[in-house]
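About this split. The held-out portion is used to measure sequence recovery: a designer receives only the structure tokens and must propose an amino acid at every position. Recovery is the fraction of positions where the proposal matches the reference. Here is one held-out target exactly as it appears in the evaluation file.
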């Protein structure tokens, strides 16, 4: 069976989704939505499609987690203890 390689866009979306999951760190959808300043339903949709996150939502999530936005957007997050 041939190897399947993700496109660059698919890799970026997978990394963004993984970083969002790491940022949640066991928090509920309701808690994360309050941090992002959106409704729980909107956060749930953003979680399924992380490319729909707005700059303001990313800013709020990163500010609360005390991480740089470029770390969240540009690479895999490394949390303490990893």
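Reference sequence for scoring:
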């Amino acid at each position: 069976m041939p190897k399947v390689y993700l496109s660059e866009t698919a890799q970026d979306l997978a990394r963004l989704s993984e970083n969002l999951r790491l940022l949640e760190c066991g928090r509920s959808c309701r808690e994360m939505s309050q941090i992002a300043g959106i409704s729980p339903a909107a956060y749930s949709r953003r979680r399924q499609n992380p490319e729909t996150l707005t700059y303001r939502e990313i800013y709020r999530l990163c500010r609360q987690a005390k991480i740089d936005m470029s770390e969240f957007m540009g690479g895999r997050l490394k949390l303490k203890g990893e």
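Annotator remark: The helical segments are 8-24, 29-36, 40-48, 55-65, 69-74.
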